[in-house]
Structure formats: C-alpha cells, structure tokens
Design brief:
239 residues; alpha/beta; TIM Barrel; 11 helices; 8 strands; 45% helix; 15% strand
C-alpha cells in the first residue's frame, strides 16, 4: 500500500458480484473510497455495501436521494446502518429535504450508535450541458451560477459538501469556504475518452483548482491493470 494522500474515489459501475468483490480487494487499499452507484446497488442491494465495508473498503454510496423530506430522512437513517462513508442526495430536492437527510443521519447515530455518512449534495450532473439545462430544464442561470446557488443551499442545510463538475470548483470554494467538501466527477486523465461527460478536466487541474476528491471510473476500470492505473494517477497528484 502506498503512503500518498488518497484523493481518488473509484466509480465501480459493474453488475458482476465476483468482479465487484475483486475490485473491493484490489482497489480499496489505494483509493480514498469506492463509489457504489445505482447500477450495483439495484442489482445487489444493501448487502453489497456491507460486504465492501467488511472487506475494508471505504464506500461512497451514490444514490442521489430525491424525494419528500420524510422519505429521505428515513432513507438516510437506514443508509447510516450500512457503514458507508459518503452518501449523495440531490440538492434540487430543496432545503427542507436536505435538512431531513441530516436529521436522518443524526437519528441513526443517536439510536443505533453508528457513525453515519457525510452528506454530499449533487448539484448539476456533469452529463448536462448549459444548453440542455436552459432548453430542457428551463433553468435561466448559467451552469456555474446554478451550481454555486445549490452549493450554498446545501451548506445552509448542514450538508458536508457537494458533488460538482471541475468547471465550478473555484467558484464553490470561494462561496462556501475551505471546510466544505468538493467531490468532482467528470475527471479524465490525458488521453482518455470523454464518454458521456460534458464538463471535464484532468485530475491534476481539478486538484489544483481546489477539489478534495476526484471520482474516476472508466479510465481506471478499463485499464489493463486498474490497480496500477489508480496508483499512477494518485502518485501524479502528489507530485
């Protein structure tokens, strides 16, 4: 295991349980966390989170909760029992919904004696362009203005940070301060395909701009040796 600062969260978008288990063991020690999203969670359920934690991996559970406050509160409380380090919720659910998520985590911590996850608010998905946001979603603000407004709302609600594209890192950091976590997807090392991401940049640039953690999936998982690729990226960030 390397001693570098761990800033890469690996997105495990796989539907094979044996492969997932191998990745827990292979990548867990060298990653800041492993991200379990809807694909894996729906296929295998909450037990996959427990298995990953039991194998020593730190987990970012990317469920992007978005519902009425009471439902989100109960869901956040239940997630707290799984052992995940991070949990995502949609900031567009509004202030009361985000506050309810915080109450759910605190409720589980008090009643079950567990350490609940840090809460991250999802702002504007990195797959959405400014044109799509305006023409399809009816948002008249620029992407940057919308992301910063949602980040400030998340901070007011008591969330620990946000998920936002590399293009908004500097603005969020300026608006929300140094203690507010910024987790950044849409990261593509030099030479990697952009795939379905619209607002992307390199790992080095994202960290230089102020991101705390980077979410990287396909460039690592599709490498000939995923562990070596993760270590290569992590070591470059520490130079």
């Amino acid at each position: 295991m390397k001693t570098y600062k761990k800033q890469v969260i690996v997105a495990l978008d796989v539907s094979n349980k044996n492969k997932a288990a191998l990745l827990f063991d292979e990548l867990g020690p060298d990653a800041a966390a492993l991200k379990i999203g809807l694909e894996m969670f729906i296929r295998f359920g909450p037990e996959i989170v427990k298995e990953a934690v039991a194998r020593g991996a730190k987990i970012m559970l990317d469920l992007k909760l978005h519902d009425i406050p009471n439902t989100v509160q109960r869901a956040a409380a239940n997630v707290s029992l799984l052992g995940a380090e991070l949990l995502t919720i949609h900031t567009t659910g509004g202030l009361e919904m985000m506050k309810a998520a915080r109450r759910g985590v605190e409720e589980a911590e008090k009643n079950a004696g567990v350490k609940g996850p840090k809460l991250l608010g999802v702002t504007v998905l990195t797959s959405i362009s400014e044109e799509a946001m305006k023409n399809e979603l009816g948002v008249t603000k620029s992407v940057e203005e919308q992301v910063v407004a949602l980040a400030l709302l998340a901070k007011e609600a008591g969330l620990d940070g946000v998920v936002a594209s590399p293009k908004e890192i500097k603005s969020i950091r300026k608006a929300c301060g140094d203690d507010f976590l910024i987790v950044t997807p849409g990261i593509r090392p030099v030479g990697s395909s952009a795939d379905d991401q619209k607002r992307i940049c390199t790992p080095e640039q994202a960290i230089a701009d102020g991101a705390d953690y980077l979410v990287i999936g396909r460039p690592i998982l599709q490498a000939d040796n995923p562990k070596e690729k993760l270590i290569e990226i992590a070591e470059n960030l520490n130079k």
